UniProtKB/TrEMBL annotation:
Pfam families: CEP76-C2, CEP76_C, CEP76_N, CEPT76_peptidase. Residues 10-69 form the CEP76 N-terminal domain. Residues 522-659 form the Centrosomal protein of 76 kDa C-terminal domain. It comes from Calidris pygmaea (Spoon-billed sandpiper). This is Centrosomal protein of 76 kDa. The keyword Hydrolase does not apply.
């Protein structure tokens, strides 16, 4: 087998590094000197290579070198020859083998290395973590042209020890095929930034968004040797968007090296032209939006109090048109139906944007999609924007609605318009779906009116990625609202062209591209087993504190599985199935004269201790866990349902059976 010249030189370099590392040259010199003294002194004969190798082998140096060399076997061959796994569920505890990336030599790559951080002053006083100690960590998430990457978690520190490299393909899915090598001039027209999001995970697994940064990578096109080092200052989010949180040292490199490097004047001119063009488009849209708002207020003075939202601040405090937060998003094979998409969005955590200080005011922060997905939680606006984008991806006509719930609390939800005129409201925080039937206030009292089941009170505007409508009906109450969007006396539209000029992704837009969804990295069976074992320990300890013994019934625990599967199916599809079989199995497992009690509960996190504390607050659950009686047998079953982005729905059911003693 012959190697190409570049591979041969690479192999020689690796062997040389290994020999230097083991100081083989020094040891050979020692052996050589010793051999010459011992064997050449009497008759001054010539020392052959064979004699030297024999001497090296006798002293074990060759064996040492061979032990140090690690030969990588073919992963697929290993898989083929390994024995089949038994049917029970095992977890491989071996560290994963790092697969080498195949670099296509006909394509351009940007190699982005993160070489540590500094000046993360919030962690200045943080002590050095002890080996094996659980500590808060930083994780860096990247998105570039439909590719997503995540760094290894590193302990939070003033100078976090980031050492990761990411290979970004420059013309992924576009700009020519493999037969054409993209040149520096073509790459200069690719204005997609590298979106970097820094997440902090505390010791309880709670995530916080630390920083969101758009890296302009094209400076590398004007760098000598195609390599440049950048110190990126990260700013905080929300109310701290003007405060520095730390600095990342980043090294950018082009693969293969550019034949022709651009001059810095060319790249700087391109950047300033793009900024001017974007600023001009945004200025024109602002002028148009002000004019539209003046016209809207002239229709009716009370419109001033309606929730008509044209701009919203992102996590970096940048005002952006609300339509730019929506884009049709296809989930590939990760989600199969619109209702499954609604379920996925509802199991992402809900958290209001943090406010420093009191006052009860709501801090506005509409997150970019990458920041929302990486943090795995966000406000109602983030959920509604994602759900609307997914429903548009499924081919529905979907809009985000801005209005209020009970007591005038501002809220956003999603609406879909059917081709037959059916209006459905989707609550992004719960996955619930409501059909809207308007009440006609002019009908006589005798006419029976539909009772609205949805929690929404008023609606000010609706929008998606192409359209924006302000509600100009006499009342903004949802129950009397008619959603005839073609009637301009009911809904005042914005110009589609104006929206398109600032909200469609393109060469002159400040709108960040949408990242693709990632498949779950969780193993549902393993996660379910772990939580179940932890809950058994917690229940046993709790009963022991009450002076009660605990006997577990494994068979009864297993019988609870169908109920948990049915609950999740009902949440996803609104269809209830399998209840008869579950009840029949339980009746067979519970003898005559015994009582069965069960308590199901649902969570969107995997912290067993936190879930158990919540369960104990329910008197029904406490009744099951603290059950007293004759022949008490306890059961618990946990079922984790995984969704994209490592989101999960966790169903827990506690049950007990005991002999009734009157």
């Amino acid at each position: 087998m012959s190697l190409p010249p570049e591979k041969a030189s690479e192999l020689k370099q690796i062997i040389h590094q290994q020999l230097v590392k083991m100081d083989v040259h020094g040891r050979i010199r020692e052996v050589l000197a010793e051999t010459i003294r011992e064997e050449l002194a009497p008759e001054h004969q010539q020392l052959s290579t064979e004699d030297l190798i024999k001497a090296l082998r006798q002293r074990g140096i060759i064996d040492d070198v061979m032990k140090e060399l690690k030969f990588i076997t073919d992963v697929n061959e290993k898989e083929r020859t390994s024995a089949p796994k038994p049917s029970t569920h095992f977890v491989d505890r071996e560290p994963p083998v790092l697969k080498k990336t195949n670099i296509d030599p006909t394509r351009r790559y940007l190699y982005l290395q993160v070489l540590g951080g500094k000046a993360f002053l919030e962690h200045l006083q943080e002590p050095e973590p002890l080996p094996g100690q659980v500590c808060s960590t930083f994780t860096l998430c990247l998105h570039f042209r439909n590719q997503r990457f995540r760094s290894k978690p590193v302990p939070c520190a003033c100078e976090p020890d980031f050492h990761d490299g990411f290979l970004l393909e420059v013309h992924k899915d576009s700009l020519g095929d493999g037969s054409k090598m993209v040149d520096a001039t073509t790459m200069l027209s690719i204005c997609d930034p590298v979106h970097m999001v820094l997440i902090k995970t505390d010791t309880f697994g709670e995530t916080t968004l630390v920083a969101s940064y758009f890296l302009e990578w094209r400076s590398v096109l004007a760098a000598e040797n195609g390599v440049t080092n950048v110190a990126v200052e990260l700013l905080g989010v929300g109310t701290e968007s003007k405060v520095s949180v730390g600095v990342l040292n980043i090294r950018l490199e082009m693969y293969p090296q550019l034949n022709k490097v651009l001059s810095p004047e060319v790249t700087n001119t391109q950047f300033s032209l793009e900024r001017q063009k974007t600023a001009e488009k945004e200025r024109l849209f602002l002028v148009y939006a002000k004019q539209w708002w003046r016209e809207y207020l002239q229709i009716r003075p009370t419109h001033n109090a309606r929730l008509v939202k044209i701009f919203a601040q992102d996590e970096n405090g940048v005002n952006r048109p609300v339509c730019s937060y929506i884009r049709p998003l296809r989930a590939g094979r990760l989600l199969d139906t619109p209702r499954q998409a609604a379920r996925f969005v509802s199991v992402l955590g809900y958290e209001r944007a943090p406010v420093i200080g009191g006052g009860g005011g709501k801090q506005e922060q509409w997150c970019t999609l990458l920041a929302f997905l990486c943090r795995n939680k966000g406000d109602c606006e983030d959920h509604a924007n994602l759900l609307c984008s997914l429903l548009l991806g499924f081919g529905l006509e979907a809009f985000v609605c801005v209005g209020t719930k009970a007591k005038g609390v501002p809220h956003t939800w999603v609406m879909t318009c059917g081709t037959d005129g059916t209006i459905a409201f989707w609550e992004s925080l719960t996955g619930h779906r409501y059909i809207h039937r308007p009440i006609n206030p002019d009908d006589p009292p005798v006419v029976e009116q539909p009772k609205p089941l949805y929690p929404y009170r008023t609606i000010g505007c609706i929008f998606n990625h192409q359209k924006f409508f302000g509600n100009c009906q006499p009342s903004d109450a949802v129950e009397v609202c008619v959603f005839d969007l073609h009637d301009e006396s009911k809904w005042k539209p914005m110009s589609g062209e104006a929206i398109k000029s600032v909200c469609s992704p393109g060469t002159t837009s400040s709108v960040p591209p949408f990242p693709p969804l990632c498949a779950s990295t969780l193993d549902a069976a393993v996660a379910s087993n772990e939580i179940e074992l932890q809950l058994r320990v917690l229940v046993s300890e709790h009963r022991k504190d009450l002076g009660l013994s605990t006997v577990w019934d494994d068979h009864l625990s297993y019988l609870l599985s169908p109920a948990l599967a049915a609950y999740e199916l009902e949440r996803t599809t609104s269809i209830s199935a399998g209840n008869e079989e579950f009840q029949d199995a339980v009746r067979r497992a519970v003898p005559d004269g015994h009582t069965f009690k069960g308590f199901p509960i649902h969570f969107v996190y995997r912290n067993a201790r936190r879930a158990f504390a919540t369960c104990l607050r329910s008197p029904f659950c406490e009744e099951v866990i603290c059950c007293r009686g004759d022949q008490v047998r306890l059961a618990v079953r946990v079922r984790v349902f995984t969704y994209p982005e490592s989101a999960c729905a966790v169903w827990i059911m506690f049950a007990c059976k005991y002999r009734s003693v009157l």
